[in-house]
Amino acid sequence: MIFTFMNSRKFNTKLGNVTRDPVSVAMLILLVVLAYLVIWPFFQLVINTLTWSEGSRRISREAVPGEFTWFYWLQVTAGPISGKMLYGPLMNTLITGIISTVLALIAGGTLAWCVVRSNMPGKRWLQPILTLPYILPSFAIALAWETVFRSPKVGGQPGLYEAILGIAPPEWLSYGVIPISITLAIHYFPFAYLLVAGALATIDSQMEESALISGAGKLTILRRITFPVVAPAFVAALILTFGKTIGQFALPFLLGAPTQFHTVATMIYANLALGLDSMAYVLAVILIAMSLLSIWLSNRFIKKKSARFETISGKGFRSREIDLGDWRWFVFGVVSLFGFTVGILPLILLGIQSVMLIDGFYGFENLTSHFWIGKSNLDIAGGEPGVIHNKIILGATWNTLKLAFLSAVIAAVIGIVIAYIAVRRSNNPLAILLDQIAFVPFLFPTIAFGAMYLTLFAVPVGPIPALYGTFTLLVLISVVSRLPYSVKTGITAVTQIGQELEEAAEVAGASWWQRFRRIIMPLASSGIMSGMMVSFVGVMRELSLIILLITPATRVLMTAGFGYAEEGFTQLTNALVLIVALLTIIGELILWKIGKGRMARLREKQS
Amino acid sequence: MEDWQRAHGALTRKAILKGTIMAKISIHNLTKRYGNMTALKNVSLEIDNGEFLVLLGPSGCGKTTLLRCLAGLETPDEGEIIIGNEVIFSSEQKIMQPPGKRNLGMVFQSYALWPHMTVRENVKFGLDVLKTPKETSDRQLDEVLKKLSMDSLSERYPSELSGGQQQRVALARLLATKPPVFLMDEPLSNLDARLRMDMRVELKRFQSDAGATTVYVTHDQTEAMTMSTRVVVMKNGEIQQVSPPSELYKKPNNTFVADFIGMPRINLVELHGSGQIFSNGDITVDFGWEPGVKSVVLGARPEDLTISPNLKSIGETYTVTAVLPNGPEIIVQLQKGKTVIIGRVGHDSIFENNQEVKVTYAQASLNVYDASTRELISPIKNN
User: Fold this and answer.
1) Cβ of B289 under 8 Å from any chain A Cβ?
2) What is the rounded CA–CA span in Å between residue B366 and residue B250?
3) pLDDT by residue (tens digit) across A28-83?
4) B112 — contact with chain A (CB < 8 Å)?
5) Is A473 in contact with A452 (CB distance < 8 Å)?
6) Domain spanning B265-377: which superfamily?
7) Rounded distance, CA B277 to CA B275, Å?
C-alpha cells in the first residue's frame, strides 16, 4: 500500500502533478519570464504611444499625464511636422533599403554562384574574406567610407579622396542615399551570399545534366533550370535583407545625420535625444510593423514556393562544378579584388587613420602613436588620452568583454533548455509556444527593441526594480536578443541526440538530472560551445540594441566609439572599432576551429 | 524514501535471481490513444516466467507501443500491468512506476549507445545508476564483456565498432544489471542478413542462460518463428492470436494471421455452397463436415498442394502460369478458370508454362474461415 501511495505522484505527468517534473517546471517559469521580457515590452511600447507622458504639458495644453490620447500618432502621421518626422525618413528608409538590398543580392548571388557552382580557384581563401563585412560592425564600414569621402563642407578635415584628387568629393558621394545604400550593401551582401549559397548547394546537378543531355546550352541551363530553382530562396533573401537594412541605425546615422538625412531608425534616436520620447516610440512601432511585414512576406513566399520546388535529395545526389575554362583566373581576380576592397581595405583605412595626428593630412611626418599609447594632451582630441591610458576605453573594454561573456553563457544555457523542451515535448502546445516566444526578438529591429526596454525598465514595476542605467539591463537585453539564435543552435544540437539515447538511460534508472548531465550536456556541448561563441561575437559588435540604454558607467567599446564619433574624435573611434573588429575576427577564428573539430568528429562517426 | 525504494528494487532483483520471485508479466485491458488514433485497444496478455514472447505484426500495429508501455516510456490511458508481484501501472489505482524502477532492461532498435562513452562506460552506466559497489561493478563488467567477447574492445567508442559489435554492446548493457525482464525492440533489424542469423542463435542462448522473461518486437516472421516460445500477432492495436509458432502456422485464427504468416503467402479462396460441398465455379471442395455458413474462405498453404504432371492421376486440372525457382524449392503459379493459386514443390521438380497438371491437397491441413467474420471455423466431424 505504501508503495502505491509513493508512486502516485508520477502518474500522468502530462495532466496532473507537474510540480515534481523538472522539465514542466522549467517550461512554466520560462514561459512567464519570456512573456514579460519579450511580449509585454511591445505592449508597453504601444501603450506609451497612446498615453500622455509626464512632460507633455510642454507640447500641448490639453495634456493630462497618464490619460489616453491619439495625440502622438496624429502628430507623427498627420501633424505639421509629419513630413520631417515620418514621411521623409520613411522614404529615405525605403529608398536606401531597396537600393542596398538589390545591390547586396546581385553581389551576393553572383559570388554564391562562383563559389558554390563554378570551378573558380582559391575558394577556400575567398570564402572567409567574403563574409568579413558582415562579421565586422556595420559601423566600421561607414567609418571607412567617411575616411575616404569626408567632405569639408560639413566641417572637419578632408578625406582621402580630396587628399589624392585635390578636389572635394560631391556631397551626394559623402552623405545621404548613395553612401548609405552602398555601405549597407557591403555590410549585408554576405548575408544574401550565405542564403543563396545554401540554396545553390541543394541543387542536384543531375537536374542540370539532364538538361545538358537534352541539348541545352550553359546559359539556357542557368536561365531555365538553375534560376527558377533558386528563385524562392532568392526572393526570401531579398525580403529578409531588406528587413535587416531598415533596422540599421549606426551606419545611416554616421553617413546621414551630418546633412540632416534621416531614416526611421535614426529618427528614433534623434527624437529621444531631443526628449520627444513618445514620438520616438511611435516611430519604433512603425519600424517594428515594417519589419514584421517583410518577415511575414518572406515566410509566405518560402512556404508557397518551396513546397512546389522541393528538390528530393538523398540517393544519387551530387553537385558538379561548372567549368569556367580560361575565364576562371579572370573571375578569381575580380572576386579577390572585390573581397579585398570590401573586407580588408576598410580595416586598413581605419588602421591608418588611427595613427594620423591630424586627420586628413596624409604624410609620414603626420604619423603618431598617440591615439594608441599617448598620455593626455590638451592639444589633441580634447585631452583624451590614447587607448592604453584611457580610463573610458579601458573601462569600456572590460565592460564589453564582461557583457559579451555573461550574455553568451546565459543565452546558451537558456537556449539549450528551451531547445530541449521544444524538441522533447513537441506534443505539448505550451512547449511550442515557448519556442515561438523565444523567436520573437528576431522580429524586432534592434533599436526598437532597445526603445521597448527603455519604456519597460524606466520605473520600478512591482518587485522588478528600475533597471535603467544598470549593467544588468544590458545583460538582460543582450541575452533576450540572442535567444532566437541560441535556441536555434540548441535545437540542432538536441535533435541530433536521438530520443532512444535518453530512453536507454531512463530504463537504466537514471533520473532526469542524471540524464541531462551525463547524456544531453556532453553530447550537445560542442554545439552549445559554438552557439556561445556566436553570441559572444554578436554581443560584442552590437550597438543599436544598447545605444539607448547606455549610461557613462556602463559604456562598452561600440558605444564609446560612437560617442567619440559624435564628438569628432575620429582617430579614437577608429581605434576602438578596430579593436572590436579584431576581437570579432579572433572570435570567428575560434568558432571556425571549433566547427572544424566538430565536422571532423562527425565524419568519424559516420564512417 | 528514494533509498528505501532502491533497496526494495535490489531486494526484488536478488529474490528473482534466486528464483523465489517469478518475473511473470500480466497485462490487463491496456488501452493507449494518441489523439483520435487508438494504438492499443483493450489488450490483455499473460507472459510466463522465462518465456520468449514475440510481438509480431505489420508496422503501425501497436507492437512497439505495447513494448514501450511495458518499459514505462509511454503512459497507457487505461488498464493495468503487473510484473512479478508488483503493480507497475494501473490507471485505476493511479500507479505509474518510472522505467528505472521496473527491474527491466531494454535493447533499442538503434541500439541507443551513448556515443560519448566507451564500450565499458556504456555498460557501466546502468550499474552506476544502481549505485553498485565498485568491486561488484568491475567484476560484473568484466564478466559480461568477456561473455560477449567484447573485452578487447572495451575502450573503443561506439563509432569505432561495426554494426554487429554495436549490437553486442547493447546486449552487454542489458545483461550487466541482470534484470529479470528483457525488452527488445527489433534489435536485429539493422544487421545484414548473414549476421542476423548468427545473432539470433546467440541472443536466444543469452536469454535462456539468464532465464529472463523476454518480450521481443519484430516484423520479421522468420525471427518470430525461430526464436519464440509464443508469438503474439497484432493488427490495428488488437491481438489477433497468441500461439506457439507451429500452431500459428498450422492453425491461424483468422484470415489476417493466415495471410500474414508464411512466405509465399497462403492460398485463400472464397467458396459458396451449403452442407459439406462448396464451390466457386472453378473448383469444388467436399469438406466432409458442415461449416454451417453459406460462404467460406478456404486456406491452403502452398506446400500442402500436391502437383502431378501425370494427367491420369486423380485431382483437378490446372494450367501452370509461372515457374519461379527459389533455391531448395520451386514456386509454381497455377490457374483454373479465374482461380489462381500458388504451389510449392521441391527443387528437382520440372514444370513448364502452360503445362496442364493435376492438383490434390491434404484434406487435414485445410483451414476453413467464415467469409463474413474471417474467423476460423473448427471442423466438427459429424459421424
Assistant:
1) no
2) 9
3) 999 999 999 999 999 989 998 998 887 777 777 777 777 888 888 988 888 888 88
4) yes
5) no
6) Nucleic acid-binding proteins (2.40.50.140)
7) 6
